[in-house]
Amino acid sequence: MKIVIPGGTGQVGTILDRALSAAGHEVVVLTRRPAHEREVAWDGRTWGPWTEEIDGSDVVINLAGRSVSCRYTPANLRAMMDSRVHSTEIVGEAIAAAARPPGVWLQMSTATVYAHRFDAPNDEATGVIGGSEPDVPDYWSYSVEIARAWERAQEVADTPHTRKVALRSAMVMSPDRGGVFDVLLRLARLGLGGPVAGGGQYVSWIHDRDFVRAVEFLIERDDLRGPVNLAAPRPLPQRAFMRELRSAWGVPVGLPATRAMAELGAFALRTDTELLLKSRRVVPGRLLAEGFDFAYADWPEAAGDLVRRRRGDRDRAGAEGALVSGSS
């Protein structure tokens, strides 16, 4: 199959490109700064030669959008909104204009669309959409509005010959450098991976290999459309999540942090506390109902695998460095 991935140079795009290319598919990545073979220039806003890649493709997986790893200033929130909505609109226009449109358009969305809650999990059928929760910062509702506008842009696109799926993804856990797992593991290794603000807020996540398998599942199942939660079936409180991560690496303790301490840490990391404090209790109702089998349904096993792969990468890098040093 020919698979086009707009915005495919980030962590999730790299995971998909690597796996889908290894499976024998022709993968084309649309990016603002093409630097490698199979990368084609686009700006996420305007028409251009990139549209020729979509015409005749089999699958489009749109991941474009400004990173959420930033301070949630009004300007950054607006950039998140605009980059997601405009890129989705222009992808929809390219599919609509194609002489041979793709069979399926998978559009990235986010589990952040659901409400901050502790009492029950959010699936696609009964989950509560956020934006009106009491006792949370006002700007959290804007994050939900970004997610809703993102999905609306795909929903209203006039693409009658292309099946549309919105990927309400939880955090994708991968041993690659620069991803969310990398950040959390670094905190754990420094002894800072304890409960944050009590640690009762739920963490939803998905192992990178299950993420790829779920995408492949949704491509193959031509009867599935609309929002689909991409999350492991058993989210867990942050205190337990970090405890299992520390255990996998072999760190005995993790210092707790108050909300105020989390604010300081987020400021230092140039990110936002919503990523730490919002309770994302999201479960994959539709995937489970359709028979998808998670290879990593529980965090202890997933964390163990990710740590082993991370240590394997580190050991290989060390061995390669020793070979270079010995030959010089």
What would a concise description of this structure say?
By secondary structure, the chain is an alpha/beta fold.
Number of strands: 11
**Proportion of helical residues:** 40-55%
**Element pattern in H and E:** EHEEHEHEHEEHEEHEEHHHHH
**C-alpha-based Rg, rounded:** 20 Å
What does the overall shape look like?
globular
Q: Which key features would you list for this structure?
A:
alpha/beta; 328 residues; two-stranded parallel ribbon; 14% strand; 7-stranded parallel beta sheet
SSE blueprint and pairings:
Elements: E1 2-6, H1 11-22, E2 26-31, E3 39-41, H2 51-54, E4 59-62, H3 74-97, E5 104-108, H4 140-155, E6 163-169, E7 171-173, H5 180-189, E8 202-203, E9 205-207, H6 208-220, E10 226-230, E11 236-237, H7 238-249, H8 259-268, H9 274-277, H10 285-289, H11 299-327
Parallel strand pairs: 1-2, 1-4, 2-3, 4-5, 5-6, 6-10, 7-9
Antiparallel strand pairs: 8-11
Helix pairs in contact: 3-4, 5-7, 7-11
Any overview of this molecule?
This protein is α/β, with parallel strands linked by helices. The protein has helices at 11-22, 51-54, 74-97, 140-155, 180-189, 208-220, 238-249, 259-268, 274-277, 285-289, 299-327; strands spanning 2-6, 26-31, 39-41, 59-62, 104-108, 163-169, 171-173, 202-203, 205-207, 226-230, 236-237. α1 links the parallel β1 (2-6) and β2. α3 (74-97) runs parallel beside α4 (140-155), α5 (180-189) crosses α7 and α7 packs parallel to α11. The longest helix has 29 residues, at 299-327. It starts with a strand and ends with a helix.
